[in-house]
Amino acid sequence: MENSLVVPAAVIGVAFIVFGAALGIAYLSGSPVPPFQPPPNLAPLETPVPYVVGDIMQSEDTTQGAIVTGYDAYRELYSYQPVVVNVSAGTFHILEGTGTMPCQEFEARYPYKIFTNT
């Protein structure tokens, strides 16, 4: 008779934990409604962008490389991560620090895409 309240209390406790976990997941996943403004690092779909996020670019003399990490269509800037590319081995080494550069300057400095299957 003394243990008759233990089982219902355990069921209520487990239900409370599951409900709390579901609320936590719903809260952390964010709002399902998309924002009205695109994120600042993505170009609007109607804007033609020569390079997209994730493209690996290389200079004409192959001494410099960059991974495109963002594109701001409103300020016409690329953000990029400098890399050292070894085309013959198919490898690259990511250098420290990211930078931003105006679109025209970036496209002139890094005119060639490499690893086009990425």
UniProtKB/TrEMBL annotation:
Keywords for the protein's UniProt record, in alphabetical order: Membrane, Transmembrane, Transmembrane helix
Residues spanning the membrane: 6-28
Protein's name in the database: Uncharacterized protein
Organism whose genome encodes this protein: Methanoregula formicica (strain DSM 22288 / NBRC 105244 / SMSP)
Lineage: Archaea, Methanobacteriati, Methanobacteriota, Stenosarchaea group, Methanomicrobia
